[in-house]
Write a structure and sequence with these properties.
Layout: H1 9-14, H2 21-31, H3 40-45, E1 66-75, E2 78-88, E3 93-98, H4 104-111, E4 119-124, E5 127-129, H5 134-139, E6 142-145, H6 157-162, H7 175-189, H8 204-216, E7 222-226, H9 234-249, E8 253-257, H10 261-267, E9 270-275, E10 278-283, H11 289-297, E11 315-325, E12 331-341, E13 345-349, H12 356-363, E14 371-376, E15 379-380, H13 386-391, E16 394-397, H14 401-405, H15 412-416, E17 427-428, E18 431-432, H16 434-447, H17 464-475, E19 482-486, H18 494-509, E20 513-517, H19 521-527, E21 530-535, E22 538-544, H20 549-556
Parallel strand pairs: 3-8, 3-9, 6-7, 7-8, 13-20, 13-21, 16-19, 19-20
Antiparallel strand pairs: 1-2, 1-4, 4-5, 9-10, 11-12, 11-14, 14-15, 17-18, 21-22
The structure holds adenosine-5'-triphosphate and magnesium ion (MG).
Length: about 575
Amino acid sequence: MIREGGTSTAATLAEPPRASAPQRRRLRSRRRPALHSGDACGAAAGQRSIASPETTPEPGGTELKLELRGITKRFGSLVANDQIDLVVEPGEIHALLGENGAGKSTLMNVLYGLLQPDSGEIVVDERPRRFRGPRDAIAAGIGMVHQHFMLVPVFTVTENVMLGAERTRGGFLNRRSARQRVVEVSRQYGLSVDPDAVVEDLSVGVQQRVEIIKALVRQVDLLILDEPTAVLTPQETDELLDVMRALKADGKSIVFITHKLREVKAIADRITVVRRGRTVGTAEPTASEDSLASLMVGRTVKLKVDKEPAKPGGPVLTVRGLTVFDERGHPAVDGVDLEVHAGEVLGVAGVQGNGQTELVEAVMGLRPIAAGQVTLVGEPIGERRTRDILRAGVGYIPEDRAVDGLVKDFTVAENLVLDRYDQPPVASGLSLSPRTVNRLARERIAEFDVRTSSELAPVGTLSGGNQQKVIVARELSSPLKLLIAAQPTRGVDVGSTEFIHARVVHERDRGAGVLLVSSELDEVLALADRIAVMYRGKVLAILPADAPRERIGLLMAGVSDTQPAGTEEAS
Ligand SMILES: Nc1ncnc2c1ncn2[C@@H]1O[C@H](COP(=O)(O)OP(=O)(O)OP(=O)(O)O)[C@@H](O)[C@H]1O
Ligand SMILES: [Mg+2]
């Protein structure tokens, strides 16, 4: 699988506390490889060491017509792509829709030369092509931005853009000309970035722009964007859609993968839907969300959650005066008070980056608490380790599955018991009982509709959405007092989103308290019984579930009921 491996919560815990900002900077300067050294990166960036055209070519201009004919790709007995046809016209934004595991990323990895098809043809401008690797694809004018970025964190934007460019179209004479190209491309398409910024200091949205610029300076005419909006804030999403429009206006074509039907309707010129490895149809962007959803999953999907009013009991989670610092030593969570009751869903709404991540990490013992208390059913948990918090009856769906949720090289079955490997019925005495582990796994896989060839497949070979379902299945399979669900349906298709939402409501009705954090306001509105809006580390208000959407939106932008947040410090 292309995506990067990760570590589990358990592994995260074994590491020393995160380095402070000054420490990180020191580490960075030590880790930074010398750019003029003789390694591959150094050669890429070294002055005049690049075999490149004498002049840096102008972007745009050419157009590209792409045809995929009968692409078939198997992984063992699993047919991920089964005779898929796809035509992308020049200057078109073509949305590729399909449920989790349908084969979208596989098809795009074939197109980008990362995977070799078992049969079928890639035809560019009426010429059949064979791509042995991404370099060949780029040379043919095809670029790709993966959902998990492939940037070198300790390099600057310009250095990242230069990496590997010597072997592709549009190589650079030197760092100055590369920097110049970054500036030009970023201006041309409205991709604002600082060419000298170090990548690890940039937000996810800006890092994504760097990836796009990296493709564009290589003069690609067709850009593949695999779920680019899954990790973006609503504003960043809007900006990306604008960038896509600018690219289209310049004659470039885009293959756009997303699970958000609203985005497809907003931007796509044409839609192809794949299901279980096959093309099941094409649709116009005027099609209703309901009809797109049912074309994707092959049945009617309820886009709205059915639930009875909550019957809240006593508090299960109490947070008082909680202050938590970010890596730079600034308060990311700033004196937060909230309570989650048994039998209710407290939804935390807010634009990502307003302290939600740090709030959840502090509650889970993954981040030090600077001030305040956290209590789980009357017991202070502030000093406890994550493992003990989980065992006290807390389910945790982390926002970044690659970092905190899964061990990619472990099997699906092993990942399903990560936090209970030493407890019955999984373990008997001191040893793990593989037969029980595998049997439980098969039950979970069926119940949560995880698409995998077997419970013994490494979890890293599953599609993104199916990896997410493994986490959800694990966390919802033991009795819970509290469920902390951060972005629980990120990357998940509409059908599975419906299922996960129903399960969250089921946990609530069984009496668990649920703390739901989501940057999707729709998800918060669908599930929450009360809504806390976070802005710059503070909870600005806690509202009833039927609060007007506009009011929540204003609070998310920092406009509180009494005064605009911006005026707070001034007064
Ligand atoms: N390297 C691999 N080895 C084995 N199986 C794989 C590998 N890569 C993908 N698969 C399988 O191929 C199928 C298609 O996966 P793919 O990642 O293309 O789905 P997708 O449509 O992108 O789904 P999602 O929306 O969840 O990202 C899945 O069943 C997946 O488990
Ligand atoms: Mg995918």
